[in-house]
């Protein structure tokens, strides 16, 4: 099966990603580009929300793809791909934060060069997106991670639990606390609901 045969409306269905990973693990290195194309934008979005720095997000995304390339044998094809992928990506983001924190306080290094989802059309939307990103960066990395997985990647509680290696109940309680903290931060910044 060729890469073009797998596409539906320009997208590779999730069930076919597992097949691509199996082919890749069996030695067909050409199919890895299809996996990268499918997950590049989503992973970059997640990493940016997690790290708050576009350059760092690009590096973390690249690190993730390199790790997957060399560790494809660790993927269990009987399980969904996305939670595994995002657990690798989250670990790459955590590694970047640890490295960054060794040299400088990461809050001082914020670069808000991208908006929340895509480029908003109005100045008010851009201003709100900037405030929202600033508020996200005030959350702990664990809370930022759970918000990003749920709301930018649209992952279910079960998928998040699989990606982070925690129970579904823990996901729900962390998400509740993260949303409350985010709401309080936004209120403190003068942003109402």
Estimate what percentage of residues fall within beta strands: under 5%
Give the number of DSSP strands: 0
Order of helices and strands: HHHHHHHHH
Average pLDDT metric: 78
* Name given to the CATH homologous superfamily: RNA polymerase sigma factor, region 2, helix turn helix motif
State the low-pLDDT regions, or none. 1-12, 103-122
- Tally of domains: 1
Instruction: Provide the CATH top-level class.
Output: Mainly Alpha
Shape-level CATH architecture? Orthogonal Bundle
User: In angstroms, what is the radius of gyration?
Assistant: 18 Å
Number of helices: 9
Q: What overall geometry do the principal axes of the alpha carbons give?
A: globular
Sheet of most strands:
none
Overall SS class: mainly alpha
CATH topology: Rna Polymerase Sigma Factor, Chain: A
Query: What share of the residues lie within helices?
Result: 55-70%
Could you tell me how far the N terminus lies from the C terminus, measured between alpha carbons in angstroms? 49 Å
């Amino acid at each position: 099966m060729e890469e073009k045969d797998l596409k539906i409306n320009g997208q590779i269905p999730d069930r076919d990603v597992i097949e691509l990973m199996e082919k890749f693990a069996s030695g067909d290195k050409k199919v890895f580009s299809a996996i990268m194309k499918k997950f590049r934008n989503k992973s970059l979005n997640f990493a940016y929300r997690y790290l708050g720095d576009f350059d760092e997000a690009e590096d973390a995304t690249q690190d993730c793809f390199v790790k997957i390339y060399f560790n494809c044998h660790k993927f269990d094809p009987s399980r969904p791909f996305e939670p595994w992928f995002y657990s690798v990506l989250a670990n790459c983001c955590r590694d970047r934060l640890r490295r960054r924190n060794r040299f400088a306080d990461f809050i001082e290094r914020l670069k808000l060069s991208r908006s929340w989802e895509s480029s908003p059309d109005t100045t008010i939307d851009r201003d709100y997106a900037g405030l929202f990103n600033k508020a996200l960066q005030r959350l702990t990395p664990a809370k930022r991670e759970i918000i990003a997985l749920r709301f930018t990647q649209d992952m279910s509680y079960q998928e998040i639990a699989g990606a982070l290696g925690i129970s579904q109940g823990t996901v729900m309680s962390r998400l509740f606390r993260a949303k409350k903290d985010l709401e309080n931060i936004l209120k403190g910044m003068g942003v109402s609901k």
